[in-house]
Structures are given as structure tokens and as C-alpha cells.
Amino acid sequence: MTPSTIDSRKFVHPMEKAGISAIQAAAQAAVLTEAFKANLLELVSKDCLAARFAGLKVEFDVMFRVLAAIVGIVMAAVVLPCLDRLATL
Questions:
Q1: CB-based contacts of 64: which residues, under 8 Å, 6+ apart?
Q2: Where in the chain are the domains?
């Protein structure tokens, strides 16, 4: 993603009309442009997010299957002895 810059002419003109000198307005435009560039470089693209979420989905699917297996084992360990006792009554 290429960072966008502030159009100095569009920024400076209203600032001058508001009573700020052209030098100060141009300096502010330059500072804001640098700030926007730095922030835009930190943004994440939709493709990057989609790839990350796909990876997380796979991880959660695996964890869910492991958890389901553990719950099944625990239930079998609890239920089978109870069924065995019921069968002997």
C-alpha cells in the first residue's frame, strides 16, 4: 500500500485564509503527511487479515476436536462404570 500525502495547496490555502502564515501551514502539511505515512504503513490489508483468520480457524478446529475427544474419554470413564453397576442390579 502506498502512503498518500496531503495536497499542500489544498491544505495551505484555507490555513492562510484563517490567518496562519504560508510557512507555518506548509510546515503543518509536511508534518501531517509524515504522520499519515507512518500510520498508513502500519495498516493491515484485508488479505492479510483473511489469511490470519484462516490460520486461527484451523487452530480452533484442531483444539475443538481435541477437547471433544477429551470430553468423550472423561464421559466414558464416568458413564461406563455406572452402566456396569446398573447391569449388576
A1: none
A2: 1-43, 45-89
Determine the straight-line distance between the first and last CA of the chain, rounded to whole angstroms. 74
89 residues of the chain, pLDDT tens digit each:
455 566 777 888 888 899 999 899 889 888 888 888 877 777 888 898 999 999 999 999 999 999 999 999 999 899 888 888 888 87
Phi, psi of 8 (to 5 degrees): -55, -40
| Alpha helices (runs of H) in 1-89, residue ranges in sequence order | 8-17, 22-42, 46-88
d(C-alpha 4, C-alpha 10), whole Å:
14
- CB neighbour list of residue 6: distance below 8 Å, 6 or more residues apart: 29, 32, 33, 36
Give how far the C-alpha of residue 71 lies from the chain's centroid of Cα atoms, to the nearest Å. 32
